[in-house]
Give the backbone structure.
Amino acid sequence: MRVIRRLIFSSTLMIIFFAACDTAPDIQYDQKPTARIQAMRFGDIELDYATVLFDVEIDNPYPVSLPVRRLRYALINDGRTFLTATIFNNVIVPPNTKNVLTLPDKVTYARLLRALDGVPGLKIPFKAELTLSLDMPGSEWIDLHAEKEGSVVLPERPEINVEGKTYNAVDVVFVATPQDVVDKMLELAEVKKDDLLYDLGCGDGRIVVTAASRYGCRAEGFDIDPRRVEESLENVRKNNVGHLVKIEQKDIFTLDLSRADVITMFLLPSLNANLIPQLEKLQPGSRIVSHSFAMGQIKPDKVVTMYSREDKSEHTIYLWVTPLR
């Protein structure tokens, strides 16, 4: 009886298998999906980021959904590529449809303006070149290519008001320092437990949090962007260093820096130079560490170049010990 039951069970499985094969969609690969760019436009504009939106019509002739796994794009102005990026997402194109999908990407707004040598409100011609990678059933990804020429108006940049002064996206650009570069900056500054560290433009708070966690020192972070302040405060809470770290929304050019033993910063060269009058008031022996950028004509005491495993690129770190020369 057990043998008969096994035979019946096996036969049932074979029937189910072949029935499933009979009902599987018969995909005709002589028909290929196509893509067409309907528009390139700007969406949300934040203090330091702009959202670029691509409205892409995708024709899926197959009876199965097709995930869009990757979008690569290049934007060209006057024969010069001013923006390229690769975005990974999981947008789904339904079966047997021609759908318009909106694919977004966030770009640093100030850098976009500088790359175009443009100003808000300027109308610029562009050429967009897109490659969409679709996950085909039973085969490798296929790439769909699409191009479009047109024009777009650079949107107005947002502004915030802090302590009676107005700031815009060109003034406030946040790019996170890789963690291994943060570690090297603090090592170069020879941070000690009894130091007070100020981070000017603290971003997500990783420098002050690392200093407090690793060296047990007090640290204060300052940023003009309220979103960065919130990120820093969350980072402080998550790492349980609130007893050592203070975060404030401040204009760094209004700060009295004379109490600090260590200053860390990742600011544009012009901002570094503008800070010199405040930095000259630091006590002798105070250390100033800058990621990537020098400080006007002030000669650094040490310059270190390192390779970051996090972003696979080289970084330069500058150290000054007061009094400045």
About this structure: Residues 2-23 form the longest helix (22 residues). The domain at 34-159 is CATH 2.60.40.10 (Immunoglobulin-like). Confidence is low (pLDDT under 50) at residues 1-25. Residues 116 and 258 are 40 Å apart (CA to CA).
